Amino acid sequence: MKTFILLGLLSLTFAVSISNQGTLSNPTSRVERIMTKFMQLSEMSTQFNFNKLFDAIDQLSAQLKQSEVDENKLFDADFAQYVEDQAFYTDLVTFYTAEVAQHTEDLRSLNNHLESYQQQLTQRQEELDRTQKQKAQLEETIRQNEITYNKQISDFNTAIDVLDQAIQLLSGLRNPVLIQTEQDQLKTLAGKFSSINLKNHRVLYQPIIDIFMQLAQNNLANQDLLKKVLGMLNGLRNSLDGGRNALTSNYNSERAANLELLESYTKKIDALVNEVIPMLQDLIANTIEQIKVKTELLNNAQANLDEAKETLQFIEDRWVKRKAQHAALLAEYEKEQALIAQTITVLQRGGVRRQ
Q: Coiled-coil region(s) at which residues (predicted)?
């Protein structure tokens, strides 16, 4: 720019000089006009001192050279800053890329754990429901077994009591002719035997019922028959007593096994309700919270990574522009220096020199 100013000053000098000399003939071409002006300037070179003009040209050339030196220094400083910034943000991109990858992997692992805990919780809740139903069914079985046992024991006790009454009655018969009271008692005992609900033992006491009815109808107390009947009654009583004992033993054994199983159900339900399910629920809640925190960390890391990438790209783009600017400035300086040299040559050819 200063070079063009200098050329402008030279043009002004030509104009003043020509105006002082008067109007020249009009050249027919631009080249002729320029040559005419330089011929006039050459003729005037002995009349004017152009040292200040050459000093100004030298000063402008020196300023251009210094500007070029300053630009090179600034460019070197900008390059050093570019290298530093590029390394810094490249490291940031590497760091945040690794951080995003780690958070992503952690999230994948946490989601897998969450899915596993939720599946386990569903399984344990189903197990709890199943165990509660099993417990309820077993409690109903125990209740029904107790009802059945009490009914069967009552039947056994009733049968044994009837047998005891019959044995006592028949053992006391001494008169071969039965009186009416004894006949009625025999009929009553026969009726009681008929009402006993021990089907498995009916084959044993049905003959006794028949004998009771025969004795009651015949009104005779045959001692041989009585002994036979008493033997049958005692045998039946022993059989019933053994059946009652076996029933009690089996019932107690089955009840003990059911109570043990019931206790295991109770313990299992307590463990599921008070320990396992709450633990899984806590794990699920904690894992969900960890996922929230980890997701936020991932989002922050991703935002930092995007920002670092954008900044790095900005640094690269800025450096490309800076290199282009540097090349343009150097070319401009070189062009201006060449123009200055060309101006000096033209002046010297026109006879304008230092004095």
A: 100-148, 284-318
